[in-house]
Amino acid sequence: MPARSLKVTINGQAQPVEDIPEELMMLDYLHEYRNLTGTRFGCGQGMCRACTVIVDKPDGSSEEVRTCITGAHYFDGKKIRTVEGHAQRDEEGHIKTLSTVQQQFLEHFSFQCSYCAPGFVNAATVLVERLQRQPIARSQLENTISEALESHICRCTGYVRYFEAVRDAVLKTPGTTKEAS
Amino acid sequence: MNYRSILVTALALGLSTTSVWSATSDNSTLEQGQYLVRAADCAACHTKEGGTPYAGGAPIATPFGTVYGTNIRPDKEYGIGDYSADEFYHVLTEGELPDGTQLYPAMPYTAYHSIARSDSDAMYAYLMSLKPLNIEAPETDLSWPFSMRWTLNFWNLMFAGESPGDAKDQSEQWQRGRYMVDVLGHCGECHTPRNALGALERDNHLQGGVIAGYEAPSLTPDELADRGWTPEDLQTFLREGMSDQGTMFSEMYTVFHHSSRYLRDEDLKAMSLYLMGENPPDARIVDAGNRAGADSPGRRHYLNVCAGCHGAQGEGVPHVAVAMEGNTTLRLDDGRNLVKVIYDGIGAQKFSGFERMQAMPGFADKLSSAEIAELVNYLRQTWGGLDATIDAAAVDELTAKNE
Ligand code: FES
Ligand code: FES
Fold first, then answer.
1. What does DSSP assign to residue B214?
2. How far is A163 from chain B (nearest CA, A)?
3. Which of A40, A92, B54, B281 has fewest C-beta within 10 Å?
4. B236 vs B250: CA distance, rounded Å
């Protein structure tokens, strides 16, 4: 399989530049080359979004991208975050604090098998960050959350607790909502 | 007096009422009527999304404004409840309502002009057997001067009412095919180019047109074969909505759901015989081994955003994503459809049986126009055997008309 060099920043760290097969999907790169196995392989067809990671764009916005259907080289030169990149860690790599989204997922016990959770956490993080840039009326919050997360599939159907966790994560993040529209 | 004797009396008096007609139509007439109404794809325009079939309200976008399909259930106020079979036949074949109002040619009366009277009667019987629903279609809203219905008389004088020649030397199957394709199926309405006044260019019959921003490709035998079609594949495509050449999308997806999937095998055979001829040209095979630019930017975009579903070698994934190899869209001279599906994506699709195609994402915000052009050229060269003629400006032009 022909290979090409890939330069990517993951969770704030520039990764070693090395030759990566051209046809490799990003999910396999994360698992096999970077040992970042928190990104889950679900359907492999772009349907369930368990494999979602965050791409940080140069303009300061962030977006979700599915890694099962996207080649590793699509991310060449890009900055991405995986579910391993949300918590704050000390020098030794031990977790100090979880992100607000992660904390709310824990507090609402929003897991059953947790297979879909990394995708949901990433999607919720993208949503919170978007609302920080573009706050919405409090009254639109439920709809906005549904729209942002509805394409993520949870086989254990834990949607209510997920959505509640995301709502609280938004409400606990200053500047995401305003009273009137 | 019971219902039966009312009927008998009404018949004896020669009264024509809705219930009399439907009550006197036997099951085989109704079945035949339903088949013909489906073959004529009446539902596509006379059923709004999520609405009751034939109760009207579907918006039909034309370059001149939006026309709404009317209620064709037997409602006396808004439907065809007061029409006689004669009047129904007249509307169908001349585009003129019983009160003299001329219909806009969005209703394909120019194609239906040659509908057999017996077929019209069966269609009428079937529609009259449906439950009347008192639903009014929204007002049609056209730009001036097209808003003036009297202008249609001139339009009709110029463009309507031409019957196809009798083509006596052709086989019965061919004649049936022509009737299914040109008359009932009114395929030419989309697959024939139109002039500035919205009329079909008859000299370019079935040579391809543009509808809702997408190309309805040419259906001439040589061009079909050039894109890899055989008569058998055409039949499968119409029956199943998918074949080795890809799946139906855009307007044709609706045609499949409302119409072509119900057609009988003998009619599908007749249609493909009419379209491709008694001696169809050989389908052209593109040698995918002759891959353009294995190291091209287009190949890299393909591997980055397409190969996950369509396969690194374009082989596709059965029941999930179509193959690039043999795909008809990659082989169209005009790159319009390819550019647009990449830009817009295609929603999840449901076909016959358990067959489904997952949604294809659009790449409007993932790839630049130059990248789309590189990708499209790579696809066209590799699996279409075409030249790399698409540039970023062409992509911009096609996608700007996206609304
Ligand atoms: S694993 Fe990627 S969307 Fe399901
Ligand atoms: S918690 Fe099991 S798939 Fe969502």
1. E
2. 24
3. A92
4. 18
Taking only the tens place, the pLDDT of each residue in A67-123 is: 999 999 999 999 999 999 999 999 998 999 999 999 999 999 998 899 999 999 999
For residue B77, the distance in angstroms to the closest alpha carbon of chain A comes to 40
Distance from the CA of A20 to the center of ligand 1, in angstroms? 21
Q: What is the mean pLDDT of residues B50-79?
A: 88
Our CA angle for A69, A71, A75, nearest 5°, is 120
SS3 B116: coil
Given B295, B312, B358, which is nearest A23 (Cβ)?
B312
Residues of A in contact with B307 (CB under 8 A): 23, 71
Question: What is the C-alpha to C-alpha distance for residues B358 and B361, in angstroms, rounded to an integer?
Answer: 9
Tokens of B17: 């009422």
For residue range B118-147, list pLDDT tens digits in order. 999 999 999 999 999 999 888 777 665 555
Note whether B289 and B178 are within 8 A (CB).
Answer: no
Q: How far is the CA of A50 from the centre of ligand 2 (A)?
A: 9
Contact B96, B83 (CB under 8 A): no
Least distant ligand from the CA of B308: 1
Helices (H), B13-148: 18-24, 27-39, 42-46, 85-94, 109-112, 117-128
> Pocket residues for ligand 2 (CB within 6 Å)?
A 111-116, 154-156, 158
- d(CA A38, CA A114) in angstroms, rounded, equals 11
| Residue B36 DSSP symbol | H
Q: How many residues does chain A have?
A: 181
From B306's Cα to the closest Cα of chain A, the distance in A is 7
- pTM of the entire predicted model: 0.85
**Chain centroid to CA B130: how far?**
24
Cβ–Cβ gap B308/A22 under 8 Å: no
Interface check B345 vs A, CB under 8 A: no
Phi, psi (degrees; rounded to nearest 5) at B210: -120, 130
Question: In this predicted model, what pLDDT tens digit does every residue of B340-368 receive, in sequence order?
Answer: 999 999 999 999 888 988 899 999 999 99
Which two tokens mark A150? 């509805």
Question: Encoding tokens for residue B295?
Answer: 């190291």
The total of other beta-carbon atoms located within 10 Å of residue A153's CB is: 17
State the ipTM, two decimals: 0.85
DSSP output for chain A: --EEEE--EETTEEPPPEEEETT-BHHHIIIIIH--TTS--SSSSSSS-TTEEEEE-TTS-EEEEESSSSBGGGGTT-EEE-GGGSSEE-TTS-EEE--HHHHHHHHTT--SS-TTHHHHHHHHHHHHHHHHHS-EEGGGHHHHHHHHHTT---TT--HHHHHHHHHHHHHTSTTSEES--
